[in-house]
Amino acid sequence: MRILFMGTPDFALFSLKALIESGENVVGVVTQTDKPKGRKAILTPPPVKVYATELGIPVYQPKTLRSEEFAALLAEIDPEMIVVTAFGKILPQNVLDYPKYGCVNVHGSLLPEYRGAAPMQRAVMDGKAETGITTIYMDAGIDTGDMLLTGKITVEENDNFETVHDKLGECSAKVLRDTLQAIREGSIVRVQQEDAKATYAAKIENADCEIDFSASAWEVHNRIRGLSPIPLAFTRTPDGKMLKVIASRVVDRQGENATPGQVLSLSDGEITVACGKGSLALLEVLPEGKKRMNAADFINGRRIAVGDVLSLQQG
Fold this sequence. Notes:
Strand order of the largest sheet: 5-2-1-6-7-8-9
Structural class: alpha/beta
Largest sheet: 7 strands, mixed
CATH class of the largest domain: Alpha Beta
Helix content: 25-40%
Shape: elongated
Distance between the termini: 60 Å
CATH architecture of the largest domain: 3-Layer(aba) Sandwich
Number of helices: 8
Number of strands: 15
CATH topology of the largest domain: Rossmann fold
Radius of gyration: 22 Å
CATH superfamily of the largest domain: Formyl transferase, N-terminal domain
Order of helices and strands: EHEEEHEHEHEHEEHHEEEEEEH
Strand content: 15-25%
């Protein structure tokens, strides 16, 4: 089949590499436009573009898929199937209808759970012990198409967004290969999603990154790891400066009569903080204006003391 691939970030690379390594006929790659990154706003190509360019695969970066120009390009490429992984834009109906063998999407959840933009982060933030990959035939909705194949992974209690991302990436490569094989053999079975069981994984906003220590230690821990290593959950120190938290662990200690967010101890290189239920040890942090550091270095810098309260209401 002549396959057109659509994808943008690192996660999409797992699918594209699976297609290439399986010997699929990838006739082109559509990805988002280069974006400015870093403090110097250097124009940076998406990971998918870098990889495809290295292999000599034609790369297209249309500003919109809804133009006559892209419709003409699609006719010129003439794909028999479009494979989409983390592309970042909704495909219009004329694009969905074009390929003979349809548009197959690789989605990072066990649908119909976590439809939407941030399924991996939300699964970790919600404390899920299991998540996975679902391939679907795309329709006009957001991740609402008929399901094809699934693959599952276990989420350990100290997995974060990065480790789950990589586990799901490996899983996605296998599920995509199996999906294409089943389509070729004519053995693929379409399963309609149960909309009543659907949940939505909205894009991560700044408010999602705010740490509320009045929640239980497990809820706070799940939020921290679901947002690590990027964009990172944050609180504020008594001087009002932002303190992002990279890693944490739930501890047994209870902060009797302690205010949520109050620092209970600074022993063993950890910052133990009281939560609404239980307490949490902060292991690695990113102070405002500083580099990432382990909690021991933050403590040694005398930037925090027992009795201090970490809260968004500082300053």
